[in-house]
Structure formats: C-alpha cells, structure tokens
Amino acid sequence: MTEFMKLSRRAFLAKAGGSLIGISLPGVFVKLMDTENLALAAETRPDGRPRLPPGQQAVKRLFDMGGVQGTASTRDWKVKIHGEVEKPTTLTFQELLELSQVDITCDVHCVTGWTLLDSQWRGVQLTTIMNLVKTKESARFVIFQATAGYSSNIPISEARKENVLLAHGFSGRELPRPHGAPVRALVPDLYFYKSAKWLEGIKFTARDEPGYWELRGYSNSADPWKEERFE
Ligand SMILES: Nc1nc2c(c(=O)[nH]1)N[C@H]1C(S)=C(S)[C@@H](COP(=O)(O)O)O[C@H]1N2
Ligand SMILES: [Mo]
Fold first, then answer.
1. What is the mean pLDDT of the chain?
2. Ligand 1 site, residue 150, Cβ cutoff 6 A
3. What is the pLDDT of residues 12-27, one digit of tens each?
4. Measured in whole angstroms, how far is the alpha carbon of residue 52 from the centre of its chain?
5. How far apart are CA 94 and CA 99, in angstroms?
6. Rama region for 74: left / alpha / beta (φ>0; ψ in -120 to 50; rest)
7. Does the beta carbon of 185 sit less than 6 angstroms from any atom of ligand 1?
8. Could you tell me if 81 and 202 are in contact, meaning their C-beta atoms sit under 8 angstroms apart?
9. pLDDT above 60 (res 180)
10. CB of 62 closer than 6 angstroms to any ligand 1 atom
11. Ligand 1 centroid to 121 CA: how many Å?
12. Pairwise CA distance, residues 214 & 152, whole Å
C-alpha cells in the first residue's frame, strides 16, 4: 500500500489542480461510476457543501486500500482508551456492543481520488466513548492507534461530530476484515486515512501527534473540500 500511496502522490503532484480522473487506477473510477452516483454527486450536503469534494470521483463500492491487518477476533479484541481521561478504560467487543449503537449513512473520501457516496456503517459514536471515560478539559486531540504502528490523529472538535464512529458494521453486515474488523475508526468528513482500521487504542492528548500518513507527507488537517491532500 505504501507504493500505492507514493504512486498516487506522484500522480497528484504531476497534476496541478483541475479534475482528477482515474489517477493511480486508470479507468477504474470511470467504469465504476453510474448514473445514480452522478445524480448523488450533484447534490448539496445539509452543510451547504457539494456532496462530491473537488477532485474526487464517485465509485460504486468500497476499495480495499490494504494495510497490515490486525489478527484480533470479536472474541479477543480489546480497545485501550487512555491519555487525558478521568477513567482510563479497556473495552472488549461485547462491551462495545452494550453501548448505544447508531446506524449512519455517509460519504467517505480517499485521498487518492475516490469517494464512496451513501456508505452505511454501524457502530458507537466516539462521543459515547468520551462520555464513558470522561475526557478531561486538557484533551485536545484524539489519536487512533491501530495494529502494526498505524495511527491517525484528529482534533477533539472533529471527534465530537455525530458521524464519527467506532464502526463494526458495514452495509448491513459485519465489517469485513480487509476494511478493519473487528472495529475501525470512521471519520467521514476528513480524508479516509484518518479512519484507522483494526483499531487497538484511542489516546486523548493535549498536544497533536501526527499519525502514520501525516508524518509521511499527507495533510494533517485533511479537509476534502479544501483539497488538503499533502502538507
Ligand atoms: N490500520 C490501518 N488503517 C488504515 C490504513 C492502514 O494502512 N492501516 N490505511 C488508511 C487509508 S490510507 C485509507 S484510504 C483507508 C482505506 O480503508 P478501506 O481499505 O476500508 O477502503 O483506511 C485507512 N486506515
Ligand atoms: Mo488512503
């Protein structure tokens, strides 16, 4: 996947603005688009922004973007919640299921140029977890910690959004392993590298800690509507 991301980076850098079609997977994006997606892509979000961020192409399914998979099953998975919290906690999969569950439909935007509109996710809102562990005033950032040293970071303001989840369901089923099972982070309104798969820890910090891709040239803020792809 590293090579894939490097390749796409070169493709992006080679192209100063304008529309990006089929970057890094030539032809694939175009083939996967259909008229329904085009109609959705033309819509405006409730927040007034266009559904399709600039430079993105709508695709029909979620791509497997790779990464070092976790080996935990739903029986032995745990997530450690720590840092700037009153009550550091470790949750099992069963304990996660006992918290209030939400189903959301949202769009996800990969920095390599594809967007999946109307994807369906089930899980627990990060705010539910924040209330459970009682985040301190000093908690300003959330660091998602995944297997094999992958991590991503978001500001606490993003973490408070109702569409930010610890997701364990996708498209009405269990989240598939390549997409982060048993549990992944879902941060729909930032580029998808913020949505750490195979989640193992959630750390609340006073200072920012740039994650895996953020340390390798990708934007720390990662706003798709501002095309914050690279630092
Ligand atoms: N643990 C982990 N999470 C990860 C990654 C990774 O390599 N490892 N890749 C990120 C990137 S770059 C993207 S685009 C999305 C891809 O998710 P998907 O494979 O479910 O489409 O996961 C993100 N989360
Ligand atoms: Mo990505």
1. 89
2. yes
3. 433 323 333 334 444 4
4. 16
5. 9
6. alpha
7. no
8. yes
9. yes
10. yes
11. 15
12. 7
